[in-house]
Amino acid sequence: MKKLGSTADFIPQRNKELLEAFKQELYQLGNISNDRIFSRAAHRKASRFWVSEQRAAVVVSKMLKGDRLLTMNRKKREMYFEIFKRVRILLEHNPHRTISDAVFEVVNSPAPEFYLTDKSARVLIYKIRA
Question: Is the pLDDT of residue 21 over 80?
């Protein structure tokens, strides 16, 4: 569902935060396999959901119409379902609020993880460190 060639303004910020999570895991865990450290870094809490507000609004709108995101990879689908759940709660508490406003608030709130596969986290961290 991602548009080919699209970029996000937040990528440097996400990369910095992911690398910091990796370094913290490396420091805390010491002498264990890198794969375990990449996994733990990818599953650490993040300062926000690493998706643009516009893209999240498009996906949430589709979900409101019944799209179950079956063609999306598992981690992205998990992220969008968490965003969707939070948006629905906000809209239930304030039905006059717009979807885009609710999505903006949710995307910019703390996320339970980076929503990256272990492999994606490893690729990103090696790329960031190069």
Answer: yes
